[in-house]
Specification:
The chain has 9 helices and no strands. The chain is mostly helical. The radius of gyration is 19 Å and the shape is globular.
């Protein structure tokens, strides 16, 4: 009986986290930042993103209520703020122009190191793109569901199961980050441009949806 409930908790956590974390789709979004990295640098950057997401995810699970209480924050406000950041990132990608052949050649001849993207690994790549306010709000919801009154052991086990679900999502994200460029390479320059703009538009729409979800919760109205 207990085993069934633990399995159900894990599957429910995965089902709740997968759509908002979207590890496969986000790996293609982040791939645009990794275009100039070699395989070793890509793996190193991917590990740092996964590590950052793990810290944010598990940190939200363990200290989420305490942080929100200390700063007086509400989940809807976090959703609106994070949605604005995601929308801004998507809009920047949409408005950016592809580099000309000359510019591209000059760029490639420069020494490319991990330091070129180091400053972006936490913001905006880890948070809010790979693990954003939507994911944090889902983790908070799972945390509330997992709490069992007067049963610290059961609550602790449930929290551990949610942690395993978060880790499972990040494992999928890591393999996506490491291998997304291979798929993009097969699409060619035109395919990359189309996919890149499409993903930018989707990222912009995701941000708008998170903003509207936060607004609807703040004003208790059904927008979506």
């Amino acid at each position: 009986m207990f085993l069934d409930s633990f399995v159900y908790m894990f599957l429910a956590s995965v089902a709740a986290l997968f759509p908002v974390m979207n590890p496969i789709g986000n790996s293609f979004v982040v791939n645009g930042f990794f275009a100039d990295l070699d395989a070793e640098q890509r793996r190193a950057a991917s590990k740092k993103i996964v590590r950052n997401c793990l810290i944010v995810g598990l940190g939200s699970l363990v200290t989420g209520h305490l942080i929100m209480l200390l700063f007086g924050l509400a989940i809807p406000v976090i959703q609106v703020a994070g949605g604005i950041i995601i929308s801004k990132t998507g809009l920047e990608w949409l408005s950016s122009k592809p580099a000309s052949p000359t510019e591209k050649h000059e760029h490639v001849t420069k020494e490319v190191t991990l330091q070129n993207v180091e400053s972006k690994l936490f913001y905006p790549l880890s948070f809010p793109i790979c693990l954003g306010p939507g994911s944090v709000s889902v983790i908070f919801t799972l945390m509330a569901t997992a709490s069992v009154r007067d049963n610290m052991l059961r609550t602790g086990i449930n929290y551990a199961i949610i942690s395993v679900a978060i880790i499972a999502m990040l494992v999928v994200l890591y393999f996506g980050l490491v291998n997304a460029h291979r798929i993009m390479k097969r699409l060619g320059a035109a395919g990359n441009l189309i996919i890149g703009k499409l993903l930018a538009f989707i990222t912009f729409c995701i941000g708008i949806q998170i903003i509207l979800a936060g607004i609807s919760r703040i004003f208790h109205i059904n927008i979506l």
